[in-house]
Amino acid sequence: MFNSLSGRFLILTIIFVMLAEILIFLPSVARFREDYLTDRLQRAQIASLALLADGIVDMDLEEELLANAEVYNVALQRNATRELVLSSEVPGPVSESFDLREAGPVTLMRDAMERLIDSEPTVIRVLGYPSRDAGQLIEVTMDSGPMRHAMVEYGLRILTLSAVISIITALLLFLAVRRLLVKPIKGVVAHMQSYAEAPEDVRRIIRPSAGVRELREAEEALQSMQTQLSAALRQKERLAQLGGAVARVSHDLRNILTSAQLFTDRIEMSEDPSVKRMAPKLVGSIARAVSLCENTLAFGRAEEPAPVLSQFNLAELVSEVLEAERLAIGDHDLSLSEDIPGSMQVRGDVEQIYRMIGNLVRNARQAIIGTGQPGEINVAAREEDDAWVIEVIDTGPGLPKRAREHLFQPFQGGARKGGTGLGLAIVQELVRNHGGVLRLARTGEDGSCFEIRLPMGQFA
C-alpha cells in the first residue's frame, strides 16, 4: 500500500498536518499558560475583595481564600499604595517573576516552553493588571507545579486532537485521491496494457474521458500516439509484405535480365545500322534494371554484415571509386575530382566504405547527367580531433523538398524520376554500422554536399 501513489499521499498528508499542528501547538500552549496565570490573578483579586469589604478575616478563612485562588500571597496596589492583602507561608524562595502586563507573543511562548521542559516545581511571582480597573497592579506568588501539570494535560489533548484530525483528514484525502486521480490513472494504465497486447487493433485505442484537465490531456496525447503507432504498424506490415514480394520478383527478374544482357552482347555485333543505334540504349536500360534489382535484393536482407575493420589509405580507395564512375560517364561533360591528403589513413571496412562513397558519387552523377548540363563532383576528406570526415560535393540541381523530407527512407527518398531512394538508405545503414553519422550538409540550386562522419574512437 505504501508503495502506491495513494498510500504515499496518505502518509505525506498525516506528516504535513502534524507539522501544521505542531506549529499551532506552541502558541496554543503559550496562550493556555497566559490564561491560567490570568485566572489565578482574578481569583486572587476576588479573594482580596472579601478582606477589603470586611476589613477583618480570620486565619482559616484567609487560608481558604488563598487555597481557592491557588496562590500563597496576594499584593494589591491601589491609589499608589501597595498593600499585602492576603499572605501565607511560602515553601521556598521566589525563583522567577513574570509580568503579564508587558509580555509579547515571543516571550510568552519562550516562557511556556521553558516551563514544559523544566519539571521541577518552583515558587514564582506573577504580576498583572487587576480586572475592571480595580487598581494599578496585582501581584501573587504561587507554585508552578500545578500550572505545568495543567499545561502538560492541555498539550496532550492538543496533540491527541491533532492526531485524530490528521488521520481523518488524511483518510478523506486518500479517498478523494483514489477517486479523482488514482482510479483514472489505473484506467490509463489498463488501456496501455490492453493496447500493448494488440497494437494493430484500433478498438483498443484509448478514448479520453477524464474530468481532470491534466489527465485528459495525458489521455489525448496517448490517444494521438496510439493512433499514429497503429497507422505506422499497418504501414510497416504493408511495406514488409511488399518488400517480400518485391524481393522475390527482383530475384527472378534479375535472372531474366542477366540472360537478356547476354543477348544484347550478341546484338551489338550486328552490322545493321539501326540495330547499332538502338543496342546501346537497350544495354543501358537492361543494366539499370539489373542494378535496381540488385539494390532491392541488397536492401531486403535482414541487415548488413558487421564491418571488418582494417587500416587503409583513403585516397587510394576514393581513386578506385572515381575511376569506376568515369567509365559510366561516357561522353557527358562531367568532371570528377578528389581533395584528400595522400597519407590519410582511415580505420574501417574497406568494402563498406567503398559502397558508401560509391553510392553518393553515383547519385550525384545521375542527378547531374539528368539535367543535361555540365557539372563537377568532388570527394574531399579531413581529419578532426575525434572523427574522419568525408564529403561528396556536386554542382547538381539540388534536392527537391519532398526528397529532403524523406531523405533516408527507402522507396520514398528518391531525388530523381524513377529512383527508389535505396542508395541513401543503404549508405546510412553502412555508416551506422561504423558508429558514424550521415547527413545532408547543404543543398540548393548550386549543388549539394553529403557528409560522412566516422568516429575515430580508440583508433585515433
Automatic annotation (TrEMBL):
Q: Where are the transmembrane segments?
A: 9-30, 154-177
Going by the record, the broad EC class of this enzyme is transferase
The record's Gene3D superfamilies line, in alphabetical order, gives: 1.10.287.130, 6.10.340.10, Histidine kinase-like ATPase, C-terminal domain
Q: What is its EC number?
A: 2.7.13.3
CDD domains in the record: HATPase
UniProt KW Kinase keyword: yes
Recorded hits in Pfam families, A to Z, give: HATPase_c, HisKA
- Subcellular localization, as worded in the UniProt entry: Membrane
Q: Which SMART domains match?
A: HATPase_c, HisKA
Domain Histidine kinase stretches: 248-458
Q: What is its main location?
A: membrane
Q: Which GO terms describe its molecular function?
A: phosphorelay sensor kinase activity
Q: Which residues form a coiled coil?
A: 215-242
Q: Which domain of life is it from?
A: Bacteria
Assigned GO CC terms: plasma membrane
Keywords in alphabetical order: Coiled coil, Kinase, Membrane, Phosphoprotein, Transferase, Transmembrane, Transmembrane helix
The UniProt entry, under SUPFAM superfamilies, shows: ATPase domain of HSP90 chaperone/DNA topoisomerase II/histidine kinase, Homodimeric domain of signal transducing histidine kinase
| UniProt catalytic activity | ATP + protein L-histidine = ADP + protein N-phospho-L-histidine
Protein name (record): histidine kinase
Origin species: Salipiger pallidus
Organism phylogeny:
Bacteria, Pseudomonadati, Pseudomonadota, Alphaproteobacteria, Rhodobacterales
Primary gene name? regM
